[in-house]
Amino acid sequence: MANSLSPKTIAENILALVGGKENVVSVAYCMTRLRLSFVELEKVDIDALKKVEGAMGVVEQAGQVQIVLGPGRVAKVAKEFGEISNMEVGELDEAKLRHDEIKAKNATPFKLLLRKISSIFIPLIPAFIACGLIMGINNIAVKATAGAFAKTTVGGILGVVGGAVFFGLNLFVGVNAAKEFGGSPMLGGTMAAVITHPGLPNVMIGGNPLVPGRGGIIAVLLVVAFSSWLEKKIRKHIPEVLDLLVTPLLVVLISSFAAIFILQPAGGIISESIGTAVKAAIKGGGAITGFVLGGTFLPLVMTGLHQGLTPIHADLLKTTGENLLLPILAMAGAGQVGASIAVYFKTKNKRLKKTIASALPVGIMGIGEPLIYGVTLPLGKPFLGACIGGAFGGACQAGLKVASISMGLSGIPLAAIVNTPAFYLIGVLISYVAGFGATYLLGFEDPIE
């Protein structure tokens, strides 16, 4: 029961409820939302917007009205909206959005740190998804042929391509981190290259060879944060005529020695401690740990605190080759799918049924925002049911020790990049069933048609 209205009709219906084109200041969209700014916000009929067929939810934030339409559809509706309102439509950068939204919410130093982390890793998501899927396809082919496929030309190429994002990950993070910390991007990439250089084992300190890449992403973030801070300090004292020559030289020299003697070892200790703690928590606590993590992840997403886990995901993959956390946390989205299916069968509201039918496919594929804002969160108890579904699925993933070998995917597609796809899909099914059962039993106040 997908939405039956055309993108043009949806755009026309939205325009009629926001005070007409004379009241619209700007039109933009991101991955799932149409974002509108107005001359007079009071002229916008928020309650009526929530009932527009095709809309999965409405969020008021930082003086904007954001209409959740879902991936794919939002771009088409935005294009039509721009044409009928004679306005230029902008496609917004997700990382910048996180920056602006957090800044508007009385930003604390911790929130600003989360914003920086988000801005560093969001641009890498397409590469994670592409390489992760290629890696998954290659692994399936290798297992199906008992290793023979890996010896073929195509298999060899796919193996290289699938691992490419992780081969260059330190450099990518170094460049992006320098942008966020206020330094020169290429100097950030250079510092990441210094602590990853294959020639480091030839350098002995205290009789021990240096280890390239020790500390993984954590070390890169520490080193680039320092080099960016140092660059800004040095630049204040260097005459402009000498800046291009002296500043980069001093930054690279000083930061390299600080990195090798202090920051990379510190990053190594932190990284190794995180890896050990995650493995110990999941293997020691098993299903109980998975239950807690899977059940609390959705509230974490709602507060934005989940952004702080991104470097941990990347570091686990970079340093250990596997990530036990991602399959557990992905169960929160699966629980939400189960909860939404329960709402679909229990509600008598036709519009809500259409919203669920439109949002379920992308929810199953791992994009949960339309279901959060359009279904479970507004109804209240189904959101709790989704958390319960995520808890049971997380317990299954932890108990079966399912681990991902890449990142950037969630939902059903994550099965392509885990060590045991069958076990992962069992956990997904458990989340669906538990989320459905919990929501059906908890019930909810059915909205009036």
What does the model show?
The protein is an alpha+beta fold and 449 residues long. Strand 6 (204-205) and strand 7 (208-209) form a beta hairpin. The protein is globular and about 75 Å long. The strands form two sheets. A five-stranded mixed beta sheet has the order 3-4-2-1-5, sandwiched between helices. A two-stranded antiparallel ribbon has the order 6-7. The chain has helices at 7-17, 46-50, 73-85, 94-104, 109-121, 125-144, 153-162, 164-167, 169-181, 185-194, 216-235, 240-285, 287-303, 310-320, 325-346, 350-364, 369-379, 381-399, 421-442, and strands at residues 24-29, 33-38, 57-61, 64-68, 89-91, 204-205, 208-209. It contains 19 helices and seven strands.
Question: What's the arrangement of secondary structure elements?
Answer:
Elements: H1 7-17, E1 24-29, E2 33-38, H2 46-50, E3 57-61, E4 64-68, H3 73-85, E5 89-91, H4 94-104, H5 109-121, H6 125-144, H7 153-162, H8 164-167, H9 169-181, H10 185-194, E6 204-205, E7 208-209, H11 216-235, H12 240-285, H13 287-303, H14 310-320, H15 325-346, H16 350-364, H17 369-379, H18 381-399, H19 421-442
Parallel strand pairs: 1-5
Antiparallel strand pairs: 1-2, 2-4, 3-4, 6-7
Helix pairs in contact: 1-3, 4-5, 5-9, 6-7, 9-10, 9-11, 10-11, 10-12, 11-12, 12-13, 12-14, 13-15, 13-18, 15-16, 15-17, 15-18, 15-19, 16-17, 17-18, 18-19
Which key terms come to mind for this protein?
single chain; 449 residues; alpha+beta; five-stranded mixed beta sheet; two-stranded antiparallel sheet; 6% strand
